[in-house]
Write a structure and sequence with these properties.
single chain, alpha+beta, TATA-Binding Protein, 3 helices, about 30% helix, binds 2-acetamido-2-deoxy-beta-D-glucopyranose, signal
């Protein structure tokens, strides 16, 4: 009886600590970005960066800035895939762009999710899939740049090192 109770308590503890601290139950990342520039500019920067990093060459010195594939692109929605250079894991990424303040500003809801169904941790790869495009295209330096996310909605965000992952 006591043993059963302990096992049960243990399961509860493990379950709740995962729910509380480990972030999403599947490796994925959701980020909200805000820009003080029109969505048209954000759109063009992201699409050209995805195209630039199509081949393996961006990763010859390490990192993950390569093997992006554009699936579809309109000024409201961009869909792409990213493949990790060595293990060949595939992540689906998307950007939804919404103008505000009479088209002078842009709100981007970005999502990256691992296709591998059992992936729970990712060293922040899903975050870096998105962030590397923002950083590489110079959008992180643009007017009014602001990022909103957290470990709750973005796997291992706080420990991500996008130079590596
Ligand atoms: C990220 O990794 C690179 C390469 O290993 C290292 O040089 C750098 O210091 C790391 N950055 C952080 C913030 O840990």
């Amino acid at each position: 009886m006591h043993l059963v109770r302990w096992v049960f308590a243990g399961l509860l503890a493990v379950g709740s600590s995962e729910l509380c601290c480990a972030g999403p139950l599947h490796a994925q990342c959701k980020v909200e970005w805000y820009f003080g520039i029109p969505c048209q500019e954000v759109y063009e920067s992201l699409v050209s960066q995805i195209k630039k990093w199509r081949t393996m060459s961006g990763c010859s010195l390490g990192g993950q800035r390569c093997l992006y594939k554009l699936l579809s692109a309109s000024v409201h929605f961009i869909a792409a895939k990213h493949t990790t250079p060595f293990k060949r894991y595939v992540d689906d990424i998307s950007f939804r762009l919404v103008s505000y303040h009479f088209f002078t500003c842009c709100h981007v809801s970005a999502m990256s999710i691992s296709e591998t169904w059992y992936a729970i941790t990712d060293h922040g790869t899903n975050y870096c899939n998105l962030y590397n495009l923002m950083e590489g295209s110079g959008l992180t330096e643009s007017r009014g740049y602001k990022e909103v996310t957290s470990d709750f909605v973005c796997t291992q965000r706080s420990t991500a090192n996008c130079t590596v992952y």
